[in-house]
Amino acid sequence: MAREGPLRRSARGPWAIPLASAALIAFAFLVRGRSTALFDAGLVAATLVAGRPIAVRAVRDLRIRRIGIEALVTIAVTGAFVIGELWEGAAVTFLFALGGALERAAVGRTRNALARLFELAPETATVRRDGEEVVVSPSEVRRGEIVVVRPGGKIPVDGEVVAGRAAVDESSITGESMPVEASAGRTVYAGTVTAGGLIEVRATGVGADTALARIIHRVEEAQESKAPAQRAIERFAAWYTPAIAVLAAVTFALTRQVELALTLLVIACPGALVISMPVSMVAGIGRAARDGVLVKGGEHLELVGKVTAVAFDKTGTLTVGAPRLVDVVPVEGAAERDVLAVAAAAESGSEHPLAAPILAAAAAQGIVPSVDHGAFVHHAGAGVETTFEGRTVAVGTTSLAAELGVEVDAVVLDRLEQLRLAGRTSMVVIDDGTIVGVLGLADEVRADAAAGIERLRDIGVEEIVMLTGDSQLVGDAVGRAVGIDRVRGDLSPEDKLAAIRELQQRGHVVAMIGDGVNDAPALATADVGIAFGGGATAVAVETADVGILSGHLARVATAIDLSRRTARVVRQNVAIALFTVTSLLVGVLLGEVMMAAGMLVHQVSVVAVVLNAVRLLRGGSEPAPLPADLGPTATEPVRGQASPVAR
């Protein structure tokens, strides 16, 4: 089957009607000076293209005895056509169709989030049945069965490890990039990935009863509960539309003047009112985009300005999101450079995520060890060893030291504890049967994190909290570095969701800022979900209401400030529109306003509303300058396990 081209897709997409209407309006004005008939035909065609769906919805609403904005626009456009004001009808229907397209496009993107979540689930599971390994669908695995997961494989169920050892990347569930040790007795989750070892898992959660499935359910539930509220203009139209229709009918009954009745309908056409909010929101969203902030719709932009509490994920948001060698602590009189050289030698044949930062730190000091890769041994979940200059060298956990028969004395244990309390992921370095040093790895705090937090306080955010799946110790360390006092660690995705709801129950309008799949339920449940940075997962970006693309935390405050400015402009525009319509209606009834003068004032009000909204596009909103002592080499810890990591 031939692939559908972009033009054909566009013709069937949400933008087809407003684009066609705009093209016909443009055509009308291009031929205006040459042919009045073609000018009129272009405007009529534009109105019919954009207005037909509006009229259809209006009729459907009337059948269920509901009068909405569609009925208001349909009556106004019909009146405009009767008295020959074709441009009025074309303009109103085009603007209304444009607003509807923006809404549908935003809804379509958020639906993709669930598809991305489903992609995380593995397609097959290897189950041990009757002494044989059988490949089945994950949904066919029964509770209590043993599932075999090989290196690099996705774990298909929630369960408990009963045999084997491996490093497991749990970032899809916890959001933390540091791999964890999965050995006998540890709980693992569906959708996570093993590395460097084979494990056997007894299934305790299958199908819809897994952590990943619950995340999907929570996102669905939260998005459904956030169905868009009726726009304020629709509530206004619920009484405004029938009131104008009755007023026009009464006027005709009393005066028998058809033109006066139609004049009322046309003058009452809320051209400025219809565009007062959309044009302001579009301008605000455009301004935000220029500042690296993507907002999915006007209602989200409006809500951002009401935020009183902000909850941050830690990893990839307040932190960079990649491990870095922070500490090299020699023991037994060894030199720091020698410890690093031994560690680099041991890791040179490893593909483990923690090998890269160690090798990078060594290379930065000109250390490129020559080792016998044939002697490389990977100890699943514990560490690595190899031969270097005739000696056996190794890097890993204290469990690895025990396997190799190496004593871990009180001095080493004290160094490991100090690193643990500082939030580092710690490892011992072994050289020929002796521990010569301890390594501490951690993520690093973003250079502008503290300034971004301070700016939020400056604009009046009442409460700022960190919600992290990492340990409380690590969270506290990052909190001190960035100036967040309230830190909640060791949280699952559902715990984060509960924390958001707790803030909401206390009366806060809550913004959740995160970048991972594990943040998706909290992002969807928060009043405003904000996906942070270019590294944010597709699920986070599509679930959130706002996306910060630049990676600057100060942009969060920029978004809130811009929302408040936009809200002020919206209020001003609504006031202009209502004042104009009210004044014109009174003028018509008193016989002081004729059609020509009324239409002129009406058009002036439309221009005034547009120009007022355009003010949002002027000026700039730059992030607050960074403190002089912060820069790209900041080394504050941001991710580490409370205990040595699995290798």
UniProtKB/TrEMBL annotation:
Any one cellular-component term (Gene Ontology): plasma membrane
Major localization class: membrane
Keywords, sorted A to Z: ATP-binding, Cell membrane, Membrane, Metal-binding, Nucleotide-binding, Translocase, Transmembrane, Transmembrane helix
InterPro entries: ATPase_P-typ_cyto_dom_N (IPR023299), ATPase_P-typ_P_site (IPR018303), ATPase_P-typ_TM_dom_sf (IPR023298), ATPase_P-typ_transduc_dom_A_sf (IPR008250), ATPase_P-type_domA (IPR059000), Cation_Transport_ATPase_IB (IPR051014), HAD-like_sf (IPR036412), HAD_sf (IPR023214)
Region feature Disordered, mapped onto this chain: 625-647
Family of the protein in this entry: Belongs to the cation transport ATPase (P-type) (TC 3.A.3) family. Type IB subfamily.
Protein's recorded name: Heavy metal translocating P-type ATPase
Organism: Actinomarinicola tropica
Organism placement in taxonomy: Bacteria, Bacillati, Actinomycetota, Acidimicrobiia, Acidimicrobiales
